[in-house]
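Sequence design from tokenized structure. All designs in this work follow the same two-part layout: the structure record, then the generated sequence. An example of the structure record is given first.
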């Protein structure tokens, strides 16, 4: 299966990354990443994030998709592209006057950990039934994804305990900068890109989604931000479960319209390769979370 997709249907990664809570996890991850001052400055100084927030989320989805469901060649290609972009970028710290590389391993590790921990925690809280062993397995598998951005496998947390220890270590260096607050407020009420301006009348419907992403942040992160008043976490969990139930009920072709055309093409190619290998793709990639749809040799 290694020559068909990077992460096979038997992996824990497949379970998490096909869950529709990934959209909440992605925005939560951006909010969490913003708490690292240098990482936040890197985004602020080198991207058009506030002009095209959906574009960044879709590009992240494309990367995650390719290093999960893509072929090894597709994953290698996007990895080279991302590393090349990061290699050329710098971050200037106005407080110290120092210039830092965007591909500094410390910054790359923070972005990776904030992202994958968000995917995992939101999916489990939303109702994805992963055991502790499977959760550990997911983080262990995600070490491979981290290598595509330039990190060394052995430097990346590979279990829930290691991830908890990492956050405990890094928390003293986190703080709420004006850029971080601006980013969170923007994610709660983003400016629609030009091609989506026709959806402006429905923009108020976005706020509950943004608030859900915010309220799934760890308590310590919400206390640091203080952007929204606290609400009962039981209500947040119930809302997340309802969101997950609703989005997971969408047919795969309809859900996939949210992705960039190139991402959709990659996912279709993945379905075709898996079908040729004996997997039952009649219900799409998401259907392959059911082991009964695997070839006999894969059971």
């Amino acid at each position: 299966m290694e020559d068909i997709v990077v992460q096979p249907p038997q992996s824990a990664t497949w379970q998490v990354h096909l869950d529709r809570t990934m959209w909440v996890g992605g925005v939560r991850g951006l909010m969490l990443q913003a708490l690292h001052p240098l990482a936040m400055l890197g985004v602020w100084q080198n991207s058009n994030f506030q002009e095209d927030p959906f574009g960044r989320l879709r590009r992240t989805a494309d990367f995650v998709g390719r290093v999960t469901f893509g072929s090894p060649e597709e994953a290698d290609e996007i990895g080279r592209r991302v590393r090349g972009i990061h290699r050329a970028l710098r971050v200037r710290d106005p407080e110290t006057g120092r210039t830092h590389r965007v591909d500094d391993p410390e910054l790359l590790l923070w972005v990776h950990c904030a992202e994958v921990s968000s995917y995992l925690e939101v999916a489990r809280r939303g109702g994805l039934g992963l055991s502790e062993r499977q959760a550990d397995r997911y983080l262990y598998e995600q070490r491979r994804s981290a290598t595509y951005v330039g990190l060394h496998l052995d430097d990346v947390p590979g279990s829930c305990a290691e991830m908890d220890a990492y956050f405990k270590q890094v928390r003293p260096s986190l703080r709420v900068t004006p850029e971080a607050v601006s980013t969170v407020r923007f994610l709660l009420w983003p400016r629609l890109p030009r091609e989506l301006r026709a959806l402006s009348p429905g923009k108020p419907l976005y706020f509950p989604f943004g608030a859900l992403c915010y309220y799934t942040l760890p308590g310590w992160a919400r206390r640091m931000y203080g952007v929204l008043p606290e609400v009962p976490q039981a209500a947040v969990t119930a809302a997340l479960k309802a969101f997950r139930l609703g989005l997971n009920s969408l047919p795969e072709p309809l859900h996939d319209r949210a992705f960039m055309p190139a991402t959709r093409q990659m996912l279709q190619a993945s379905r075709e390769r898996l079908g040729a290998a004996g997997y039952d793709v009649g219900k799409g990639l998401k259907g392959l979370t059911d082991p009964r749809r695997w070839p006999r040799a894969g059971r």
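DSSP finds 14 helices and two strands in the chain. We note this feature because it recurs in several other targets discussed in the main text.
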